């Protein structure tokens, strides 16, 4: 039997329903902030990521799905969305003399060790803003996250961590100082950190290794290298978050994995889903557009991991057996199938919030009612000889002990509509 690839999950109907509900709420928040959706290819030139994400990052070093096209070009399944977004906006001239606020949703691919909350294909919703140098847009992006948690009812289960890396220059100076401090201590670092010392030293701050953390206690501190402009930017962001009464903690060890961040970095973290607790992460990347061949343009954004948000909601409210349909329409005789289809269409037009499933495949009414019950629907409608003759379908209440009713189509619509509120 052929099975799915390790780390690539099937989302089956029951989870699919919850997925849709959650994604819709998040999208509503983004659209409510007038962010515009874009759709980008899953495959890009490998060079886009080695340049955009950074050669020395975990993603480019060991997590990419790279393949040769038939003509030998090196292509990579996108491991994240920002680089492709920047590529597209440069390519279509959408960054020159204008600002952009966009979002995207879709699968990303990273060859990682699969575990709870970490997969090889996972789904991100990301937002990016271009052309805004000030902290007002950083605040907007952080607040978008806050609105997601409000819309999903989980504000008390996530916390916000913030940091600033300062300008590109400050980040480079700090990097140099950190390397100078750690190089003589290299043989006491854990293996990953030793490798990062030459490749991506800021990531050492992220190390979970206790001995490495102990060595870092006396290391040069990032906040001491943040320049005056960088500090003013960060203070500006903090003032806006304070005014909006959004709680946060400043975590000077927060650096993020990607190479392109400058100034603000942030993560929304939950403790309720295990070790992979970062549900949404982002920051500012003022150098990225230029690095990918555009004119210097400030940018900032974030990406949210939908599977982790699903786990968060599951832990908050249980998996909950939601129904597959609201109304199940039974047809007693194939001769009435067309009448039933027309009725179903009329109901869908009048009651757009209802999910109406018409029976297919024929069979006895008893078996059709069994299907109706399995669907979880609250109502069954029965169409038979009499009902068609009188133009009055029968309405059965599947979850309440109430007698069956015979209603004209208009009365049926009114009854269902009243039941919805
Ligand atoms: P992590 O530290 O968890 O590896 P990251 O820094 O690699 O995360 P980003 O590249 O910033 O993550 O991606 C943003 C978000 O996408 C993460 O906060 C997480 O919610 C989600 N995410 C990233 N990698 C995965 C994965 N392999 N499986 C599921 N979700 C993921
Ligand atoms: Mg990662």
How is the biggest beta sheet arranged?
Answer: 8 strands, mixed
| Principal-axis shape | elongated
Low-pLDDT stretches: none
Could you give the distance between the termini? 47 Å
Number of helices: 16
Radius of gyration (CA) equals 27 Å
State the helicity in percent bands.
Answer: 40-55%
Rounded mean pLDDT score: 95
Portion in strands: 15-25%
| Count of DSSP strands | 16
Query: Hetero groups bound?
Result: adenosine-5'-triphosphate, magnesium ion
Overview of the structural elements:
The structure is a single chain. This protein is α+β, with helices and mostly antiparallel strands. Helix content is 41%, strand content 19%. It has 16 helices and 16 strands. It has an eight-stranded mixed sheet with strand order 1-5-6-11-10-9-7-8. α1 runs antiparallel to α5 and α1 crosses α12. The protein is elongated, with a radius of gyration of 27 Å. Adenosine-5'-triphosphate binds next to β6, β10, β11 and α12. The site of adenosine-5'-triphosphate (ATP) has 19 residues, from β6, β10, β11 and α12.
């Amino acid at each position: 039997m052929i099975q799915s690839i390790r780390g690539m999950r099937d989302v089956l109907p029951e989870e699919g329903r919850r997925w849709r509900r959650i994604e819709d709420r998040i999208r509503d928040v983004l659209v409510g902030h007038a962010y515009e959706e874009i759709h980008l290819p899953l495959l890009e030139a490998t060079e886009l990521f080695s340049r955009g994400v950074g050669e020395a990052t975990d993603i480019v070093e060991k997590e990419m799905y790279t393949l040769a096209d038939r003509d030998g070009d090196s292509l990579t399944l996108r491991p994240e969305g920002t680089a492709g977004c920047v590529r597209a906006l440069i390519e279509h001239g959408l960054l020159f003399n204008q600002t952009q606020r966009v979002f995207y949703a879709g699968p990303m691919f990273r060859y990682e060790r699969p575990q709870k909350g970490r997969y090889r294909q996972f789904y991100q919703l990301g937002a990016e803003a271009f052309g805004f140098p000030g902290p007002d847009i950083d605040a907007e992006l952080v607040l978008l996250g806050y609105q997601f948690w409000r819309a999903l009812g989980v504000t008390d289960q996530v916390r916000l961590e913030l940091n600033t890396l300062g300008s590109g220059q400050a980040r480079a100076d700090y990097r140099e100082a950190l390397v100078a401090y750690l190089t003589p201590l290299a043989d006491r670092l854990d293996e990953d950190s030793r490798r990062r010392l030459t490749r991506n030293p800021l990531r050492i701050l992220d190390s979970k290794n206790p001995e490495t953390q102990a060595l870092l206690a006396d290391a040069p501190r990032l906040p001491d290298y943040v320049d005056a402009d960088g500090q003013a930017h960060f203070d500006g962001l903090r003032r806006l978050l304070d005014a909006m009464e959004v709680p946060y903690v400043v975590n000077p060890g927060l650096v993020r994995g990607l190479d392109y961040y400058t100034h603000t970095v942030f993560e929304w973290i939950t403790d309720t889903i295990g070790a992979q607790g970062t549900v949404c992460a982002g920051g500012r990347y003022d150098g990225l557009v230029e690095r990918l061949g555009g004119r210097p343009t400030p940018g900032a954004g974030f990406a949210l991991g939908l599977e982790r948000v699903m786990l968060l909601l599951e832990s908050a409210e249980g998996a909950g057996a939601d129904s597959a349909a609201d109304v199940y329409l039974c047809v007693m005789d194939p001769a009435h199938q067309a009448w039933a289809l027309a009725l179903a269409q009329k109901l869908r037009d009048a009651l757009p919030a209802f999910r109406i499933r018409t029976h297919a495949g024929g069979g006895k009414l008893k078996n059709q009612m069994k299907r109706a019950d399995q669907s979880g629907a609250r109502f069954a409608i029965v169409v038979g000889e009499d009902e068609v003759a009188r133009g009055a379908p029968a309405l059965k209440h599947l979850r309440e002990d109430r007698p069956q009713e015979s209603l004209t189509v208009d009365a049926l619509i009114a009854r269902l509509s009243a039941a919805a509120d």
